[in-house]
Amino acid sequence: MQLIFEKGREGRRGFKIQRSDVPVKATIPENMKRKTDNGLPEVSELDVVRHFTTLANRNFCVDTHFYPLGSCTMKYNPKFIEGVSKIEGFEDLHPLLPQLSGGGILTQGALELLYHMEQLLCEITGMDAFTMQPLAGAHGELTGTMLIAAYHRAKGNKKKYILVPDSSHGTNPASAAIAGYEVIVIPSDKTGVMDIDEYKTHLNKEVAGVMLTCPNTLGIFNPRIKEICDLAHSVDALMYYDGANLNAILGKLRPGDVGFDIVHLNLHKTFATPHGGGGPGAGPVGVKEHISRYLPISKVVLRTDGTFFLDYNYSESIGYIAPFYGNFGVIVKAYAYILLLGREGLIDVAEKAVLNANYVRSKLKKYYKLPYNKTCMHECVFSAEIQKKNGVSALDIAKYLIDKGIHPPTIYFPLIVKEALMIEPTETESKETLDSFISAMIEAAQLAETNPEGFADLPANTPVSRPDEVKAAKDLNLRWRKE
Amino acid sequence: MNYTPHTEEEIKEMLAEIGVKSIDELFADISEDLRARSFNIPHGRSEPEVVNHLRYLASRNSTSLVYFIGAGFYQHYIPSVVDSITSLPEFYTAYTPYQPEASQGWLQAMYEYQTAICNLTDMDVANASLYDGGTALYEACMMTIRINGRKKIVVDEGINLIYWNMIQCYISNLSLEVVKIPVKNFGIDRERFFQQMDEKTSAVVLQNPNFFGCIDDYSDIVEYAHKKGIIVIESVYPLSLGLIKTPGEMGVDIAVGEGQSLGIPLSFGGPYLGFMATRKEFVRKMPGRIIGKTVDKKGRDSYVMTLQAREQHIRREKATSNICSNEALCALRALVYLSLLGKEGLKEIAQLNLDKAEFTRQQLEKIPYLQVFRDRPTFNEFPVILPESADVVVNKMIEKGFAAGFPLGRYYKGMNRCLLIAVTEQRTKEEIVKFAESMEAVLCS
After folding, report:
1. Which residue of B1, B4, B85 to mutate against A (max A Cβ within 10 Å)?
2. Using one digit for the tens of pLDDT, what is the confidence trace for A92-112?
3. Residues of B in contact with A339 (CB under 8 A)
4. Where are the domains of chain B?
5. Do B359 and A61 touch (CB under 8 A)?
6. CB contact under 8 A, B403 and A124
């Protein structure tokens, strides 16, 4: 399909800029002027609309396809939340207004929303304070590891290591490295959770923190979570909760109650804000009282007269991790979602998410290897090892599903499962959708027995099939140029 | 309200299949002593109740204030098409294009976005976006350290102070030296800047227009830097590139910036868009997602995420960044905006900003006691020096319905009487005249 740059005609316009109403034609010095062509398209509004609508039709999305992408929580995003961030008074609000003398009073609604959202998230997670600033989950992790560093620096602790299990997200070690820590990877045991003996072996006074996803990326809840927290605290290491999988335990368990010191949440996962092709997300971070003094600048504070203001003066803060108060437009949507669902709705989310995942697990375990055969939480991880013996990989099965109109599960993650197929159905999917997915998965398993070569040509019904990724990395073509 | 479709009958069937009696049994691993001690979230509300509540909160924010405030974040008009395209569920409710066959729309759009950013900045390659202008600047600094292994960064005070604060925060646990060179008369102090550029310096960080709205030609600094093996990072205001000299034209190595001006609402601070573009030879050191063009087995043009070996999900603690997601939807907004405006539209909108700012300066110059800064060329933002505290004046102007600008004393010592005024194409002649009249009334009262 042609690029927008290849469309249009010289002189064609897509948007009329208003005529100047000021009697001035200003200029800048010759040496500071742009001399090159800006290379933008020359297209009409209809050209633009048709081009991007056609592109849109080349995507799978939650609104059109079942999307059981493990670890990403691709639940349905209620339509009404799309509109709420565009309400007048939110969308056009300049972020510097509260920093102007007399300006704070003009942003009271926005500050109140942030304040209430912090309170809601504290109650949901059992933490004492929240910052809404981190702009995505990984950004929340980075904030969290910086909080760990700040805590130890203040106490004069000399710490060098962060422990992560081998099933962790890659963002955990990458974030720990930026906070100045070395990473020690703890293997999982036979039941799929962090090996407690290995953990004890590596846990010592030089450990700054332990980062855990709970339930973990295998969808398994570690029943010894409290013991792990207590052990960490015995050497003054902080417990970090990666909130990627909070959807599974809403209202059931609160990280703060079992001993986690720091959590990050992914509002775009648990609280249904749209994933937008890879962002924007939001990754608020919650902490226990003893960490709150290190939270990023600034903080929304409620005055005794009922007004809100932003506090910039706390000397022990790690500083500015975002330009302002977080991805406000995303936070508004998550706030609306929480209010709409309420207590019972949120508990129902966890229950149905776990029910759906276990149903899929139970139905498919006869056909696919289930490396950890036990009750799962919100997602289950299969392996295509049986199929692989016939030459059919997890990737092949993914491509088969695409042809059936199903977005594939996450594949080849977590790294500890060979040929991993990580399935997270989410709570918003109906039994009949799950059943048709299960049927497709069974058909794929059968095809792997009867005609394993048949996978090579899949998917057959998509605009492209199995693009050459080696060529993409070798003969780099990262932009269009006019010939 | 909830969005779970399960009937009682279905739940029974599903539980029977799983082999448990109740949903609660599925949570058996969470023993009683681990259970939530409280969960005092209000009961769910209906859609109209929630919408009314949000409307109420929104009504407690300013909806009528006329903005002459910018400071890096600007109120520009957003064509309707930007919202309608980015609201398409096939963009809105999709995710990271892990499966290229199911994501060619997103992948091609991001390839086009990369092209647009390259063309706008005159650079070779761009990534598919970062969180915001500040994190993009920090990522650029880290990138230079990976490229040349040096540990010192020299920063002009003319960069957005928020970004300076962010860089300081991010490097606080890493052994790097960051030196800030104070501005002279609202612009870069070349003499002192050159002095700091030595063999230990990994990168210099510049901004154009700078935080005070002043534009410059940094070609001489780039030339000197390259002689010393120093990498030049320039943060730019993308809309201004319709008129002003580009990073590529100056020979800059890494161009970054905040893309908010390209069709993204102010939205009280986010979501925004960090963009980054660089030279071809640095591409493997660049953080963030990158989309490449290739072919499929039938030779059809295809787009995929590429160079993923740089990223955290493969390289883990040795990755070029910890970033996982990006700001795809905001990047799409920028692409649609730039496509609509097009080649001529971008020039015109930049010219209109320049003209309106100049008209505003002329109006303000009529006011006694107020001094408009004229020593350096500016784009759509400029400092004025007031006879009294800018903070006080801003407060009085709010009562007259204007966000009159950013009082520089908040960030810079000795600038208490300086006000930074931004004028975008959104400001009408009538508003500007009234703004100047109100300012005169405030200053002469």
Report:
1. B4
2. 999 999 999 888 899 999 999
3. 42, 44-45, 50, 53
4. 66-76+342-443, 80-337
5. no
6. no
* Helix, strand, or coil (residue B119): helix
Give the residue carrying structure tokens 């399935």.
A423
Q: Say what the pLDDT of residue A102 is.
A: 84
Chain B CB contacts of A53 below 8 Å: 85, 88
Give yes or no for A465 touching B (CB within 8 A): yes
| pLDDT band (50, 70, 90) for residue A211 | very high
Using CA coordinates, name the residue in chain B closest to A365: B18
CA–CA distance from A331 to each of B54, B58, B87, B264 (Å)?
12, 14, 18, 16
Q: Is the CB of B241 inside 8 Å of chain A's CB atoms?
A: yes
The reply to whether B91 touches chain A by the CB within 8 Å rule is yes
Residues 331-370 of A with CB under 8 A from B: 332, 335-336, 338-349, 351-352, 354-356, 358-359, 361-363
What CATH number does the domain located at B66-76+342-443 have? 3.90.1150.10
Instruction: Say whether residue B22 is in contact with chain A using an 8 A CB cutoff.
Output: no
The reply to whether domains B66-76+342-443 and B80-337 share a CATH topology is no
In the structure, what pLDDT confidence band is assigned to residue B314 with cuts at 50, 70 and 90?
confident
- Cβ neighbours of B346 in A, within 8 Å: 38, 40
A277 touches chain B (CB under 8 A): yes
Query: Which pLDDT does position A338 carry in this prediction?
Result: 98
- Residue A28 is nearest to which of B102, B215, B344, comparing CB atoms? B215
pLDDT, tens digit, 9 for 90 and up, residues A190-202:
999 999 999 999 9
Task: Give the pTM.
Answer: 0.97
Q: What is the pLDDT of residue B412?
A: 93
Min Cα separation A200/chain B (Å):
21
ipTM of predicted assembly, 2 dp: 0.97
Say if residue B364's pLDDT is above 80: yes
Residue A261 pLDDT level (bands cut at 50, 70, 90): very high
For residues A233-258, give the mean pLDDT.
97
Query: What is the rounded CA–CA span in Å between residue A178 and residue A141?
Result: 10
Q: At what angle do helices B133-148 and B161-170 cross, to 10 degrees?
A: 50
Distance CA A28, CA A191 (A): 69
B297 and chain A in contact, CB less than 8 A: yes
- A479:B114 CB<8 A: yes
Average pLDDT, chain A: 96
Q: Do B62 and A93 touch (CB under 8 A)?
A: yes
CATH architecture of the domain formed by B80-337: 3-Layer(aba) Sandwich (3.40)
Most confident of A116-120, B408-412, B441-445: A116-120
pLDDT value, residue A270: 96
Q: Do A279 and B328 touch (CB under 8 A)?
A: yes
Question: Which structural domains are found in chain A, ordered by start?
Answer: 1-58 (no CATH), 97-339 (3.40.640.10), 348-470 (3.90.1150.10)
Contacts of A108 in chain B (CB under 8 A): 60-61
Whether residue B58 contacts residue B406, with contact meaning beta carbons closer than 8 Å, is answered with no
Judge whether A175 is closer than 8 Å to chain B, CB to CB: yes
